[in-house]
């Protein structure tokens, strides 16, 4: 791999809570959630070309390139660039896939934001959020790049800077398809809409958690284990679970004792995505 590549962050998120407030006619669900961005994730590098090709130099095992959200994002943006605009893309995948921490969605958002700059498309953040929504409900929040309350299907934002807590994020290695959870007849769908001002961790919940725990005992076991140490909850539709700590050393101590059957990492919450900071820096260079 060429050593002069510039790497761009593609961070993870946690849903600190997730309320389902209704179901829309198109089958999608209206949500309320607090999206907490983390300081760690995957990395992407881009090399613009003039051959109109989108070439993923690091394919993901099990994901055909045409289904990869990175390639889809680049293709979606291509009509806004010069006719011959293409690029080579490298992905350094570090986040567990399908774990409710938004890896693929974040990759898509990083692609939209960085190529918007490299290809000089000059689309506004709002326009990129709208494009992102065509790729998935979790993409706009990563384009937005701030820790934020979200409603709608996850595209309406009220920014909500949070104390920079430390999170132990653990994954039981169970793959849960988001669509399966949202179509489940036993999913609660009528949580009353809450005023953002009333948010506390304790007076909120993840409406998918009980259902997922009922059908996936490994998720229930992991959550039960973490709750012995700190306030803990599932993120998104699972399968990852997080525990909240005031300091890093406590989180690392618990990570050290995590049973071998689970994978985990410790990350700090951030209020602004490091991707946005790096893009700002590029503008001033
Ligand atoms: C649950 C969250 O992870 C919270 O962050 C997201 O809302 C899910 O976002 P995502 O993974 O980007 O999901 P998408 O790829 O857009 O949707 C997958 C499937 O989940 C269902 N879905 C998703 C989001 C939503 N608000 N309502 C839904 O009913 C739809 O059946 C959709 O076909
Ligand atoms: N670049 C990508 N990185 C990861 N997964 C991808 C990517 N492109 C497509 N996918 C597909 O998307 C699926 C979900 O991956 P992802 O890591 O985004 O899940 P997630 O963390 O549950 O996301 P979310 O929290 O948005 O629901 C994967 O199993 C894979 O098939």
From TrEMBL:
Name of the featured protein: 4-diphosphocytidyl-2-C-methyl-D-erythritol kinase
UniProt entry keywords in alphabetical sequence: ATP-binding, Isoprene biosynthesis, Kinase, Nucleotide-binding, Transferase
Enzyme Commission identifier(s): 2.7.1.148
Pathway in which this enzyme or protein is active: Isoprenoid biosynthesis; isopentenyl diphosphate biosynthesis via DXP pathway; isopentenyl diphosphate from 1-deoxy-D-xylulose 5-phosphate: step 3/6
InterPro entries hit by this protein: GHMP_kinase_C_dom (IPR013750), GHMP_kinase_C_sf (IPR036554), GHMP_kinase_N_dom (IPR006204), IspE (IPR004424), Ribosomal_Su5_D2-typ_SF (IPR020568), Ribsml_uS5_D2-typ_fold_subgr (IPR014721)
Protein family per UniProt: Belongs to the GHMP kinase family. IspE subfamily.
SUPFAM superfamilies, per database record: GHMP Kinase, C-terminal domain, Ribosomal protein S5 domain 2-like
PANTHER family: 4-DIPHOSPHOCYTIDYL-2-C-METHYL-D-ERYTHRITOL KINASE, CHLOROPLASTIC
Catalytic site: 13, 138
Organism: Bowmanella yangjiangensis
